[in-house]
Amino acid sequence: MIRPVRPNEVSCRINQCFEDKASFLLYIDSRACRNILDETFGEMGWQDTYQEIKGSLFCTIEIWDKDKQMWIKRQDCGTPSFAQKEKGEASDAFKRAAYSVGVARELYTKIPIFIELQTKNTGTKEKPKYEPRYKFAVYRVTRLEVNTKTRKITYLCITDRTGEKAFEWGFSNTPYINADVERAYIALVDYAEEFATLKPCSIESALKASLKGLSHDAEGYAKAIVLLKEKINEAKVSEESKDNA
């Protein structure tokens, strides 16, 4: 099964500007898609090819099915970008085909993302056209939680360049607080992922068990990390004992 995308794989860009605010879209680039396909199927377990059909560029992604001993195909076409037509069209076709395979489907969850920011009117009073006052304003996806069964986003948090919360949507048992606490939470998630691979279970259940009775702050996350480290060491010792038996 293809895993959900991680926050550091997702970018957000302005879709449309209004007076003192803008709407944003979430996306991942083709490099992130390729990394997820490599991780899921192995570097030699998938391939992509391109062909032009009636003036449109199509990408076909093929996944090797070991059980059926055959390639499973998914295909979609792209749209050209304004900057680099051919390259942009190929990249878009690839990402659309990757979506057909199952990569980043959760990003199509319908979430109205509006963030307040300073804008300027480059049009007229009668026909205003708004643009960001500061062209290089940076917003990043800090937290993205997904229901793995429905492949829908359940919690989303976007922050500005200082780590201040700019947008929040949905519900989380461990909502974003600030940049310092988030660093502790990210470290906890890393250990939860390691434990989940050693003791077949979901990352969510590992997190929930490690935080039982603890506060959802930097101190609580630090204590949970210590607990998970102990469990990971115990699991490794148990595996070594089985191998030596």
Structural summary, described in words:
The chain is α+β, with helices and mostly antiparallel strands and 245 residues long. It has two domains: 7-41 and 76-170, no CATH class; 179-244. The chain has helices at residues 30-41, 85-101, 179-198, 203-210, 218-244, and strands at 11-18, 21-27, 46-53, 56-65, 70-77, 114-116, 119-121, 130-132, 139-147, 152-160, 165-170. The strands form four sheets. A three-stranded antiparallel β-sheet has the order 1-2-6, with no helix packed on it. Strands 3-4-5 form a three-stranded antiparallel β-sheet. The mean pLDDT is 91.
Query: Helix count?
Result: 5
Main sheet attributes: strand count, strand direction, barrel closure:
3 strands, antiparallel
| First-residue to last-residue Cα separation | 33 Å
Helix content: 25-40%
Would you identify the regions where 5 or more consecutive residues have pLDDT less than 50?
Answer: none
**Rg to the nearest angstrom?**
22 Å
Number of strands: 11
Strand order of the largest sheet: 1-2-6
**What would you call the shape?**
flat
Strand pairing plus helix content: what structural class? Answer: alpha+beta
The total domain count is: 2
Helices and strands, in order, run as: EEHEEEHEEEEEEHHH
Beta-strand content: 25-35%
Mean pLDDT score: 91
